[in-house]
Every structure is written in C-alpha cells, then in structure tokens.
From TrEMBL:
Binding-site residues, Mn(2+): 117, 119, 124, 163
Organism field: Eragrostis curvula (weeping love grass)
SMART domains the record matches: Cupin_1
Cell location: Secreted, Extracellular space, Apoplast
Keyword rRNA-binding annotated: no
Signal peptide: 1-27
Name of the featured protein: Germin-like protein
Positions with a binding annotation for oxalate: 119, 124
Record domain Cupin type-1: where: 82-218
Subunit comment: Oligomer (believed to be a pentamer but probably hexamer).
Key word Signal present: yes
CDD domains from the UniProt entry: cupin_OxOx
Amino acid sequence: MSAVTDRASITHRILLSVLLLATLCESDPDLLLDYCVADTSAAASIHLNGLPCIDPAAARAEHFATSALARATNPGATLFGFNVTSTSPGASLPGANAQGLAMARIDLAPGGVAPPHSHPRASEAAVVLAGSVLVGFADTSYRLYTQLLRAGEAFVFPKAMVHFMYNADAAAPAVVLSGFNSQSPGAQLVPFSAFRTEPRMPDEVLKMAFKIHGQDVQRIQRNLAGSS
C-alpha cells in the first residue's frame, strides 16, 4: 500500500471518528414516534434515558399543557433570593418527554441573584417577563459577556458555560422564563459544587483554589448550610 493510500485511510478513519463523536454529543436522542408521553405510573426501579411512554392512542391534549410556570413563588425567603420552577415530564409536563426540551420560571427577589452556575446538558434561552435583570456568562477563555435585560428582551447562555442572573432593581421583583434544549439540563451551582459536596471537598484544595484560610472555608460552609 502506498504512502498516499495510507494517509487517505488514516484521514478516512479520523473523519469517521469525528462524525461519530458529533452524533454522540447531540443534546437528546431523536424520537422514532410522533411523541412519547411519559408514563408516570411506571415502576421507579426502571431506569431509562428519559421516561417510558404510554400507548400513543391514550395521549390527551392536557399531556402537552402545563400551568406550572404560571404560579409565582416567594424567592425572598431563600438564601440567594431566587426560586426556580421547572417543567418535568415526570410531574408537570408528560408530553415533553423525549422532546429534547424543558422550561423554567425564575423568580428573583429585589436584589436577588441566581449565582454562577452551569447546565451541563443544555443551552439556555432566557426571556425577561418582568423587571430588569443583569445576565452574563464566562467562556472558556474567561471572557465575560453581560447584558442588562428589561421585559421582553432575551439572552442566550451557551451550553455548559458558567452564567448568572441578577435582579438589578433593589425595590421590585423580576421574572425570567427560560427554555432548554434538553429535558434534563442539569444544574451545578458553583458555590455548592465547591462548598456543599458530600463528602466535603478537602479544605486544603479549597484554600489553595480560592486563596482563603481554613476559617474562611468553615464560615462559607456555615453560611451555605441548610440552603437548597
């Protein structure tokens, strides 16, 4: 086999590998049906990448509708001044099962903040419904992109990027509606990932990473204790 043929074969294998990886890295798998309304009565011992489906012939219009996001919450009683109400195929929106999407309502108290966090499995599009909200994300080059949004304005957070929402109004609450391109976007709050893990992250790691002292680690852990 010639050197040219060898190079062509290697290139071919590399391209096939890249295409395979690209396929595997899609947000959620595509449906082979029109829809897959979640069977919420299925045994909890069954673990699938999603939820099992009911018989499509038994689907009803109400399976595809929800009022979960219509109800305001009281974020003022929370640690950071924010509450999230998310749709769930297993609870509030069974018709969204396997559709590769989820929605969330974020209620922000005056001056409240959704602290730096990421969604490892989804991009997020956020629309401000009420109030004024400062949003932003940091990319892998640690460049920060921020924007002050008012009612009717929107912002996109790229997949897995660390981002935040801050109610810039100290007197009035704010409401944000978000859409995700995964039915299970996941969420990792940076303060909890560092200081609320079980078991605890080693103090020496936290002291070195944040350039703080042992008493600082304990103080932060106490301040975050009991929060959700």
